[in-house]
Each structure stands twice: as C-alpha cells, then as structure tokens.
Write a structure and sequence with these properties.
Number of helices: 2
Structural class: mainly beta
Strand order of the largest sheet: 1-3-4
Radius of gyration: 55 Å
Distance between the termini: 128 Å
Largest sheet: 3 strands, antiparallel
Length: 410
Amino acid sequence: MSKKVKTGLIIGIVALTCVIAIVLVFVFFTDKDDEHKHTLTHNDAVAATCTENGAVEYWTCTDCGKNFADESATEELDSIVVSALGHDFSDYEIKTAATCTEPGEEISICSRCGEEQSRTIEALGHDWNDGAVTTPATCTQEGTMTYSCSRCTETKTETIKALDHDYVEHDGKAPTCTESGWEDYMTCTRCDHTTYQPLPAVGHEAEVIPAVDATCTQNGLTAGQKCSVCGEILVPQEVIQAPGHTPVTLAGIKPTCTSTGLTEGQKCAVCDEIIVAQQVIAMTAHEYSDKWSSDADNHWHVCTVCGAEDDVSAHIPDREQPGEDSPVKCTVCGYIIEPATGHIVHTAGATWYSDGTSHWQTCTGCEIKMNEAPHRGGTATCTDRAQCAVCGKEYGELAAHSPVTMPAVA
C-alpha cells in the first residue's frame, strides 16, 4: 500500500470518527421526547352494552403506546373505556297474583336487552275484620272475640283477657316532718277495689351545712344545720366578713439596652391576686462610648452597657510610611497602624481604656494596646452592674431579683 493511500485512509477514518462523535453528542444531548413523531393507528368506538364495557374512538401510537382523542395527537387520553350501561329494567308487573295463603310473582324486563328478573310477592295473609265480642270479659273473668277474613271464609277466635280493674290514678302525698301522707293509689271504676295506703309523719332529720371560709374579697359563712327531708333551717349560718387584700410590693426592674424592664406593682400576699399590674418598660438605647475601640484592621464605638459594636469601619492611614518619630496613625481613631521606626521599647501609660467586655492601656510612644484583658471582679446586684476591679468600669448584666415572700396578715 502506497504512502498516499495510507494517508488518505487515515484521514477517512478520522473524519468518520468525528461524524460518529457528532451524532452521539446529538443523540445523548437532545430531548428525545421533542424528536418523537407519533405513528397513529385509528380505533373505532365500541358501544357499551348492559353488561360489557365499550370504548371511545381513539388513535394509538404504535411506537410509544399512548392513546389520543384526535388524529393530530394533541389530546392524550388517560382512559378509553366506556363503562357498561347496566340493565334498564321496567317497573315490576304482576305475573301471578298472591292469595291469603299462597305467594305470587312479579317480573321486570330490560328495555335494551330483554333480560328478565322476577321477585316473589309474599302471601297476603288473611284480612281479618275488627272482630265481634261473643263472650264479654269482666274485671276477673276472660271473654271471647271472633274474627272473619274479608277475602275468604276463614274465621278465628281469640281470648279476651280479664279486664282487670279499670283503675283511676290518684296522686300520693309525701309525709312531712310533722304531717302524715299517702302513697300514689288507684280505685276501680267498675268495682270498689282500692290500693290506698297511709304514710306516717317522718320527723326532722338534721344535716350539717358546711362552713364557707372567707376570702380577701368574698364573705364567708359559719356552719349551720337544716332538715335533710323538708329543707327547713334548724341552725342558721352567720356571715363572716371578707378581710380584704394584704398588699405586698412587686419590685420594679430597670430596663437595659438588651432587655425590657417592669414598673413597680402590688399583689395580695394571701390570694396572689394582682392589685397593681406591672407595666413593661421599653428597652433603653445603646450607650455607645465617645472613644473609638480598634484592632489591627478596624475601629468602632462600643456600647458601655452590653458591648454591642457600631460604626465599624477600616482604618484610614494618615501617611504611607512611618518616620523615625512619626508612626502611621488612623485619621479617624488615632490607632497606631505602624509604629515609628525609632520606637523600640513599649511603655504602658497610666490610663486604662475599656469597652463593654475588656480593658487595656496604650504605649506612651506608639499608642499600641498593652495589658488587654477581660473585665473581672466586682459583684452585680439587681440594680447595679458589676464594677471591674482593675479599671473600675461597670460591665455585664444586672443580677436577677431575689423575691422575698411576705408573711400573710390575719
């Protein structure tokens, strides 16, 4: 094989490889659903019958299997089934009439398919008349009633129970503690029978009426007695006057920049009812120090109460390079960004500087922070914050109140 032929063959293989790669990229990175063209097959509608399901007219894609309501495949169908119609039965008509003792039959026919269904008509039973008394009953003797059927010649008899007494009810009267009475009783309208029974007087039965303790605002009652039968008061109760509230003070709470406060209030030491409600006092504004706090990158103002920071911004140098006696300072806060080149030994000044959480001194030559440490020492109360034992600055939060229970006053 010549060199030209080999070269041409290689170029052809490379070109074919590129074409295959392009086709693969197109196949794998193109939405296949957008390329799919439905191949539709028409299906005629199938009418439903009384017992068999039918189908709507529809088109089916032979590739993806989806069903559509039109030949343009614009409306996909979730279902093609038309439910079975069920039988359309007519009203029942009597085929065999029922008698007093024999059942009959009635039928109903489907108007669409001729299907029949039947049901039994129960035997009518005898149509007995109201009957006639052949032997009257008395209060204590049974009688006889005879009945005839209006549809046939059948007859029957029933025993009439003895009438028993034709009672008239009379209300009873309950005996009281001092008067007799009687139970409910009856008398017969046909004879002189009666159920009357007298009841003797019962006498009083003493029952204790419990005492009611007086509260701060409600009167009380002493113990008493009454009759449990008639309710008559035997020993009347006497009123115990309400003593009124025993007020104690609810201490107020000073608001801070991190928590609300409360005004002073009052409650009753006996029943705990609030007499004077405490009102919420809104939080105070932050008390930002006039002096700048700073670190190597930024400066800011610190709240002297809670330590919150405000106006945080980057240092602005007053010169590009420090001199022998001139450090590079921030033009806003005076922070020594770079010390003077001739300054070697740092000497702490006598003044302590502080923020809400720590204190420090500055070098007398370059004003760099020295001896920086958190506040410490001192004891907070519910009205004053702790005082740092090193710099004397207040810090931290107020201590919680310690409620004291006041003794009740009788």
